[in-house]
Specification:
Number of strands: 37
Largest sheet: 13 strands, parallel
Radius of gyration: 20 Å
Number of helices: 0
Shape: globular
Oligomer: single chain
Length: 359
Amino acid sequence: MNEISGLHISGANSTGTQFGNGIANLGGPIVDFNINNNEFTSYQNAVFLQNAFGDGSSLHLPSNLIYNNTATGTANVSQNGFEIVNTTPGTLDVTIKGNTSNNNTGDGFLVEAAATGTVIHATFTNNTASQNGATGIHVEATGGTLDVDSFTGNTVTNNAGNGVWIDAQEGAGGGTINVQKFTGNTITNNGTEPVGPIGSDPDGLLISAQGPTAVVNAAIGSLAGLPNIISNNGATGIGGAGIHVFVDLGGVINGSIVNNTINDNVSFGINIDAKNGTIGTIGASPTMAGAVPFVINSNSLNGNGDAGIFARLQNSSEVGLQIINNSVLGSTNGPNALAAGEGIHLRTEGTSFLWDADI
């Protein structure tokens, strides 16, 4: 039975001079697991599962479980807190709930569908990620499909990289990430590193699709749910947005940003950043039948640097936006040279096409 519960697990040897993982299955795949109520210290990775599959049914669980664990990293030793990476085809259902992951050099939490045929259904509830050197909570698809079925009540603060990164990469041609029920989270004071992974300062929430088959479908917030608090992210004098939506190398992002409180971020409250890709679904000419713009609705944005809502289209990018019912107040002149404290700033460059700007 793959249950580990109620232990203090150290990755250090008896003299404290060598360090390994707290829990890992480096020798092969694992089917069904329940890791709960453990304390991890002095590790390289607190939990490192590779090719973890199953739905928890053999353990009489509704899904596999990482629950109520604490991972406290050690400087210059610990890489990631809780990590699941699947590189061979198969399906995993996992609930990650009530865990704390602090002081790691890398990510607090990392879940990755890393190859074609890998499918992960993940739920994140009431976790805390803080003081990590990279991203607080990082979900990544580099060939597979990752469904974030719910992301609620998480607290992500004071991470040097992005607070939360929804990351469809160009590896293996890019993967697909679907995000639902992203509500009631607190994402604050992240992104203090001067340069992030996509060439700008890290952000509170980064949503990126990079690659010709990289796709993200993300519903961030809901009119019926608790708002996300996404504030005070970025490095002073350098940059970093509350929410950054980024496409490059032909990537595609669809979805919405609805009912969020986005205040006092260094450079942009919401940054729609199409370097070379598609945001929203363009319709068929000549009537644009079937068009579905990216929706920014009923958000409160106050005191953000450069602009409350900023959109930049470069190269041959195609973007459609519906910006409605938002409160945008008190923007200031921040570090970005392209904006100077506007409420809403839209710009097109090259042969890009802003096919809908419904404001």
